[in-house]
Amino acid sequence: MSEPLAAVGTWRPVMEAAGHRCQCSGQCGNAHAKTEGRCPREHDGYTSKHGHRVRLMAAPADPLTPPVKAVTLPPGELRAWCPECHTAAARRARTTAGPVDDAPGLFDL
Q: CA-CA distance, 69 to 55, in Å (whole number)?
């Protein structure tokens, strides 16, 4: 089984806890109905017969967590994500979050 070149000590416990399977349960917008509500993609597996190889990543459960904070999280606060679910979950979270209210307007400086 392949492993990342860096942060293996963080990545390995996250993958073992997830069973080397993506832990998305619909945050990406896909209900994953055919696989009991959880993404079926497994590390080093393939997306389909002619698809690409899946490389899971350890990332925060909240896809909008800033990278500066994400690197400080312990393995217990990370989840296994396939790239497709993580990207879709982040996009979906950004669109539903909306603008921050306390940000100054363009002419309020």
A: 23
Q: Where are the alpha helices (DSSP H) in 30-79?
A: 67-70
More confident residue, 97 or 20: 20
Alpha-carbon gap, residue 91 to 14, rounded angstroms: 23
Is residue 109 assigned to a domain? no
Residue 76 in contact with residue 35, Cβ under 8 Å?
no
The predicted-structure confidence for 57-95, as pLDDT tens digits, reads as follows 999 999 999 999 999 999 999 999 999 999 999 999 998
In a domain, 100, yes or no: no
Give how many domains the chain has, as a whole number. 1
CA distance 43 to 15: 9
- Give yes or no for a contact between 45 and 53, defined as CB atoms under 8 angstroms apart: yes
Tell me, yes or no, whether 71 lies in a domain: yes
